[in-house]
Amino acid sequence: MVKKAATTKKVSTKSKSTLPAGGYEAMIVKAIAELGERGGSSPIAILKNISKTHADIPEDRLKLQVRMALKRMTQKEKLVKVKASYKLANSEKAKTKKAAPKKAVASKQKATKPKGTIKKKAPSKTKKATAKKTGKKAAKKK
Length: 142
What we know:
Layout: H1 24-35, H2 43-53, H3 59-75, E1 79-82, E2 85-88, H4 90-99, H5 101-111, H6 125-141
Antiparallel strand pairs: 1-2
Subcellular location: Chromosome; Nucleus
Organism: Rhodosorus marinus
């Protein structure tokens, strides 16, 4: 009789990645809100944004899960598909706006400038040159 060698199963030592509370759907909503593109965000841009923030998730798994989540979310009408891009539905926009007012206030304060620093521009030279030309034309017509 021939004895078979004892085989041992390999236990994966990879640690499971931690997903946010809403899973891939929450990551997609956050990515689209961060990108803020008017015509919608492409799946590739969404994927790049998520992979940048969640580097611990394997790339091949992330592609599959994001693609499936995008399909699910369009069926549930959480996203609107515009050509080959995705936009947040009105109900999702309202949720993200409520969560982000603190950031918006901080950016508005930085954007405002004191009114005293505005300088008046000197009149341009092109207006003077055109005035001289029109004066010569009027003299020739007489």
